[in-house]
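Appendix B, example 12.
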Amino acid sequence: MSPLRCLLACAAMALAGSASAQSLYQYKPQKTGWLSPENRNGEPGRGALENHGAKGHAFDSIAAGGVLELGRIDGEGVIRRVWMTVDDRSPRMLRALRLQMFWDGADTPAVDVPLGDFFGVALEAPHRFENALFASPEGRSFIATVPMPFRRGARVVLRNEGGVPLNMVFYDIDFTRETVPDDALYFHASWRRENPTKLGQDMRLMPRVTGRGRFLGTSVAVLGNPAYQDTWWGEGEVKVFLDGDTDHPTLAGTGSEDYLGSGWGLGPYVQRYQGAPIADKKTNHWLFYRLHVPDPIMFERECEVRLQQIGGGPRKQVMALKKAGVPLQPVTLDPGGREHFIKLLEGGKIDPAAANAPDGWLNYYRQDDIAATAYYYLDSPGQAAGTTLAPVAERVAGTSTVKP
C-alpha cells in the first residue's frame, strides 16, 4: 500500500472510531427495559418485587412438556441483547428446549429453533467462544446481541420438549423502547436437520424464503459419517439462490472451509465473522459459523442457501470404500493442477476405479448428519413458509444426556 493510501486508510479508521465513541455520550430518546424473572414484562418500577427486593425470583423452572413465557413487550422497540443460562446444559436438553420469538402479534414465531443451536452451541457441552453476534464467555451461558426490531410488540417463549424437567432457567432480555425506521426488517431464525443427508443432493441451510430481506448467516453442526473413515467431509460448496435463481445460484463458493475463510481442511478457531469452535477429527464432530455482517447478502424477492454434500480423499481409498458398499458417487479427480482436473459427472472422461486411472484427490458425493441454523431478516413478522421446526425426537436423536 502506498504511503498516501495508508494515510487515507488510517484517517478513515480514526473518523470511524471517533464517530463510534461520540455515540456513547449522545443522548437518544430511548427507554431501556429488561425482561427477567424479576420483571417479566420489563415494566417501569416493577422489578425485584419479591422477598423485599432481595433476590426473590432470580430463576424459573419448566416441567417436562411445559411452556414458559420469558416475557412480553407492548409497543415499539428493539431487543438488543439476550442472556440466558440453564442448569442442564447437556446436548440433548439444549436440543429439546425450543426458543420462540413472536413479533407484532403474529400467530407464528419468526424465531423457532433449539435453544443451544440458536446460540451457536451443538454436538457437545457448551464451549467458550465469542463472535460478532453470539457468545458463551465461559461455556456456561449464552449471549446474543443481534438487533431485533418490532413495531407493535414482542413475545419470547421457551418450551421444554424434553422428557425431564428443567429446574433452573436464568435470563435477561434487554430492549429499548424507540421509534423503529420504516425500512426495518424482522429478525428470523430457522433450524433443520438431515440425518443422513441425501446422496447427490444439497443440504438446505436455509429453505427458500420469500419477501424482501437479508441473509445474516448460519451456524452448522456436522456429525461425520464414520463409514467414510478419515476422508474429508467438507468439499461441498455453499450456494446462495437469489431473486429468481432456479437451477444455478448467483453466489457460489469453492468449498466448506473456504466459505469459513480457512483453507486446506478445517481446524478449531473463533473469529468475529467466521469460526469453527469444534473441529475434531477423532470424534468427527464439526461446528462452524459464518456471519455476513461485513459482506451483506440482500434479496428483493426470495433467497435459499444450500451446502453441497461432497467430501474428498485419495482416489484409492475412496474407490475402496465404494467397492465395500459405502454409499458414494465420484464427482471430480485432481491428479495435480487445473490442466489435469477431471470432471467425472460430464461423462466419458475416465473410470476412477480403473487400474490405469491416475492417482490424486477424488471428490465424491457422501452422506452425513448435518443440522443448520439460519439467521435472516425478512419484511414479514411471521414464520416463513417451510421453516416449521422438526419434532423433538428428530432433533435429539443421537445426542448426549451428559451434563457438563
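The CA atoms of residues 96 and 378 lie 26 Å apart. Residues 1-18 have pLDDT under 50 and may be disordered.
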